[in-house]
């Protein structure tokens, strides 16, 4: 079996490498045509005539390309006919011809894909960006927890981020090849018996792709790439850990807890483009080191200039800046991630990776549009204007754009800190978080679906909870909400047949599932309804819902015939986050009273309403 594994790994690596090379060459041609990778900062011959060798026409960032004698690229040695490099420059047509002529001879020489004949300075310098030393005052990021997650605060680290399609492709390609060769080495080690004396039985039966070195490669690369990679990891991580191997669970957890931020040199370019060349004039103070970093952007603390302070009646603001290149690389990033995951077969079939990626693609495009997020923030501010508990930051539109969002800085402690508060305060927080979830669904019909604990700040002085980050906000179709409410009502009432019927209407079931699948699904729905079925205060500190739902997941993954409805990816992410928060707070919440009070006001598509006896 080890020889067969090695053969399959070789074939898979070869296919992925060929795909990477083909797409990389296509991307290089596109960027050459549009000059998106050209700059004028490379030394050029001063006395050459225009159009001749060494003439200062167009230069390629990272290497000089010309018709003369090839210059050595690196000490690693490259095979195959090279694209000629020359310390001058040339016109685009010659560059494109050089690329095309070299395609037939491209070979894989190193794991960092330097075989593309374009010099990429090792090890952390990408086509656009620079390697900077980490500032002395290292910031921190509060990362989302799960039930078994680490309690450590992840230290932010500065790392220039690949911002173009080509440079990001280089990184994904190097990851694919690195994983492939790592798996090949592991398969060879197992076949030869080298090191078998120190290998555990679990290691010898696990996938050859899930070695420690490969997991380190994945975590390091995805942490630096951010964007679509982290979004997909977040979506996969809401599936329970028992649905995936322990190694994959560890990778997802480590990626979520890792943290890189983009240095100010790259962020400055985005700010100049989005809010003006003199963007600093809008602030009396701007901290170049962010205090938080997420999958698609980072947040800086700043103070408005005196004029804007007077106009908006606020001083301190939070400035969220999108990572350069993230929005334009969503589709290619997800395609590359899909190739990696399908090559390695790390995920079970019931995860329906294609559908997960389809939903992630749509949600990422939403979240990368900060104008859309600003509108959602304003909308929530209106919805909660008279709410006694929740507050929403105010927008500063003059300093906001599609890639920059400036809003009021909200004071308060993250929910993680609330675990040490009194039972009364924890009950207060849990009750209001659950109330907000139900209101978003069945009153506002508009939900902020990101459950990150850092998106809720509790202010002990005012007893207010501030809401942050509205990029994942969305509305739901009326027909979906009608059916979803009926499903929850059936679960609350313990009606198995109604749960099966409305689950089929929603699209969770097709009606052709095996009995074991139908039973497992209905059991999990009834478990979710338990908090709403209990009268009085439901004690999340002693609940067994999460364990019972967990036990049904492996069965559903094996026997599922259809992926979950698209709407439920974001909806269940938020609901599971709310349940988990209440569990971690050990909150006692009047779930049934909240459910009946809010859903009794809901109007169905046909104009009817629920009534509870």
Automatic annotation (TrEMBL):
Pfam families named among the record's database cross-references: ABC1
UniProt keyword terms in alphabetical order: ATP-binding, Nucleotide-binding, Transferase
Gene Ontology biological process terms from the UniProt entry: ubiquinone biosynthetic process
A GO term for molecular function: transferase activity
Record bears the keyword Signal: no
All copies of domain ABC1 atypical kinase-like, residue ranges: 254-500
Family matches, as InterPro entries: ABC1_dom (IPR004147), ADCK3_dom (IPR034646), Atypical_kinase_ADCK (IPR051409), Kinase-like_dom_sf (IPR011009)
Start and end residues of each stretch annotated as Disordered: 39-62
Family stated for the protein in its record: Belongs to the protein kinase superfamily. ADCK protein kinase family.
Listed name of the protein: ABC1 atypical kinase-like domain-containing protein
């Amino acid at each position: 079996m080890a020889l067969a594994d090695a053969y399959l790994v070789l074939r898979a690596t070869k296919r992925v490498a060929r795909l990477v090379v083909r797409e990389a060459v296509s991307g290089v041609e596109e960027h050459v045509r549009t000059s998106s990778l050209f700059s004028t900062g490379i030394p050029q011959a001063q006395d050459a005539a225009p159009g001749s060798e060494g003439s200062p026409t167009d230069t390629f960032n990272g290497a000089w390309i010309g018709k003369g004698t090839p210059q050595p690229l690196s000490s690693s040695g490259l095979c195959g006919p090279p694209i000629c490099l020359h310390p001058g420059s040339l016109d685009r047509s010659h560059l494109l011809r050089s690329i095309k002529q070299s395609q037939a001879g491209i070979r894989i020489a190193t794991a960092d894909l330097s075989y593309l004949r374009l010099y990429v300075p090792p090890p952390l310098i990408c086509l656009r960006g620079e390697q900077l030393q980490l500032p002395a005052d290292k910031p921190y990021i509060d990362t989302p927890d799960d039930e078994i997650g680490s309690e450590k605060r992840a230290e932010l680290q500065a790392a220039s981020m690949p911002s173009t399609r080509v440079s990001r492709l280089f990184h994904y390609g190097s990851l694919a090849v690195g994983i492939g060769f790592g798996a090949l080495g592991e398969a060879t080690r197992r076949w030869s018996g080298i090191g078998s004396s120190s290998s555990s039985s679990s290691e010898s039966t696990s996938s050859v792709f899930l070695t420690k070195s490969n997991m380190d490669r994945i975590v390091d690369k995805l942490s630096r790439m951010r964007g679509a990679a982290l979004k997909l990891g977040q979506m996969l991580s809401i599936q329970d850990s028992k649905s995936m191997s322990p190694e994959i669970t560890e990778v997802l957890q480590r990626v979520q807890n890792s943290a890189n931020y983009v240095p100010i040199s790259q962020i400055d370019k985005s700010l100049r483009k989005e809010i003006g060349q003199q963007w600093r004039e809008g602030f009396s103070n701007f901290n170049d080191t962010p205090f938080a970093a997420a999958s698609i952007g980072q947040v800086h603390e700043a103070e408005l200039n005196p004029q804007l302070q007077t106009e908006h009646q606020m001083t301190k603001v939070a400035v969220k800046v999108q990572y350069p290149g993230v929005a334009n690389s969503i589709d290619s990033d997800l395609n590359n991630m899909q190739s990696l995951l399908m090559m390695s077969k790390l995920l079970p079939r019931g995860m329906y990776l294609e559908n997960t990626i389809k939903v992630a693609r749509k949600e990422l495009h939403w979240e990368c549009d900060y104008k859309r997020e600003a509108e959602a923030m304003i909308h929530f501010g209106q919805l909660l204007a008279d709410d006694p508990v929740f507050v929403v930051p105010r927008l500063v539109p003059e300093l906001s754009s599609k890639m920059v969002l400036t809003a009021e800085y909200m004071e308060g402690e993250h929910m993680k800190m609330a675990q040490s508060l009194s039972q009364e305060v924890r009950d207060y927080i849990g009750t209001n978080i659950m109330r907000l979830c139900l209101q978003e669904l069945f009153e506002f019909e508009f939900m902020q679906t990101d459950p990150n604990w850092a998106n809720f700040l509790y202010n002990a002085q005012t007893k207010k909870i501030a809401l942050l980050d509205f990029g994942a906000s969305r509305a739901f179709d009326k027909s979906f909400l009608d059916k979803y409410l009926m499903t929850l009502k059936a679960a609350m009432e313990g009606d198995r047949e109604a749960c099966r019927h409305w689950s089929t209407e929603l699209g969770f079931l097709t009606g052709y599932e095996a009995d074991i699948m139908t039973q497992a699904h209905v059991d999990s729905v009834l478990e979710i309804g338990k908090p709403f079925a209990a009268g009085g205060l439901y004690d999340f500190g002693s609940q067994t819902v999460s364990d019972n739902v967990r036990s049904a997941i492996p069965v559903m993954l094996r026997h599922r015939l259809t992926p979950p409805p698209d709407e439920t990816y974001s909806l269940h992410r938020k609901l599971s986050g709310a349940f988990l928060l209440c569990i971690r707070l050990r909150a006692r919440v009047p779930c049934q009273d909240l459910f009946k009070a809010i859903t009794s006001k809901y109007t169905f598509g046909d104009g009817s309403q629920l009534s509870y006896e």
